[in-house]
Write a structure and sequence with these properties.
9-stranded mixed beta sheet, 35% helix, Rossmann fold, 2 domains
Length: 456
Amino acid sequence: MNHTYKYDFVLSFSGADRGVVEKVRHYLLAHELRIFYDFDEQHDLLGRDLAEHFAELYQEAGQYCVVFISQSYLERVWCKWERRAALARAISSKDEYIIPYVLQDVAVPGIPQTIGHARADVTPPWAFASLLVRKLKSRLGGSEYLQSTGFESQLARALTSTRPPPPSIGRVSRVPSLASTYDYDKPKRHLHSRALYGIASRPGMGKTAIALAMATRLCQRGIPVAFLTVDQPVGTIVRRLLALTAKVDLDTLRGPKLEPSQLSRVAAASDKLSALPLRIVDAGDDASLDVALCELWTAISSFDIRLFFVDSLSSINSANAFNHSGMRGSLSALKAFAWLAQETSTTGLISLSLTRSVEMRNDKTPVATDVTGGSRTSSLLEEVFMLYRGDYYDPTGRGREVELDVFTASPARGGVRRGPMKLVFDRPTASFAELWDHDLEADISGTPDSTEGHQQ
């Protein structure tokens, strides 16, 4: 965005607070911002004099420095190095630089409590990250935001606008599933209606890429799909759809110019996507559960939606949904989406996080309770598709082509390895490598779950 600095935000935090920091980081990356986060730069940090490097990094490399304040941050040696460099920049600069996020009430030397800040007990990580995006946007005045091909706004209007509902297909159909990529038995080649399924992984593994690929494939088969975007703005989802369909690198699509052949493919992709029975549903700036449910209900009723995606569950704000103080956390949101699937005879596919890697299990086989929330979450799911990358914490071994290990697991049985899936991985985004070579088009013939009409 701002090309004066290498990073839009540099993050200064204690490793003890990494869980909170990763939530903020994930939201910022979803908005295509440039972030310094130590795990993303491990390969570059090897062999460096870290004291000298961090002094330069936190003093010169970022538009803003986000400081996660806690007792641990106050005590850690490296945090002191980072803080000194950030304070040196703040003292010498006329512009605001340090943005505190208070996790615990502690006094940090050099950072006055009068500086505008956010508190974690009032502003959750996703809401704080949203404030950061808005602050950067106001600072830049929008002038340095990503270039658009012109097709993106046109496609966004087509995929989010209201139009007369199509004729009902008259019955509840089974939906082709990701499982058909692998050797499922015939009765299990479909996702069932009135049920929830999960796609789970650690952040940045490609859940959204897989969800978008499934959505476009299902729509090409005439199955209407709604995609609820929570983590990323509609414009980002549209760009990823265009890149996926036109087979143009996302970085190229972000750029100010495209080659004539690329522009032609993007134009054709825009026309193709506009004709699909696909609805992109925006959860809004506050990502509230009540807004998400109402918007999904409207899309399902208006467009005879058969399957809806939620990307992702962890970012849904369920506090006080519908003025009900008992709504709390992701489990409440998941129960609400399960209710929606039941009431509308649709299938829900929910993006989830994992609490442990497959390497942590002796048998190297995951189970459904590995999802965030454990058995309370998995008990509401028919099945979970679980994605793993063995080299996730080994950046030096990462090439552009990455193989994901895909397992399926259900509450009733353990995990089953379904095979590798190739991605082209380019942090913070991922897209399928030669996606159309992958068979995601399951056989949709066979006995439907029910012969009754689709509930409106």
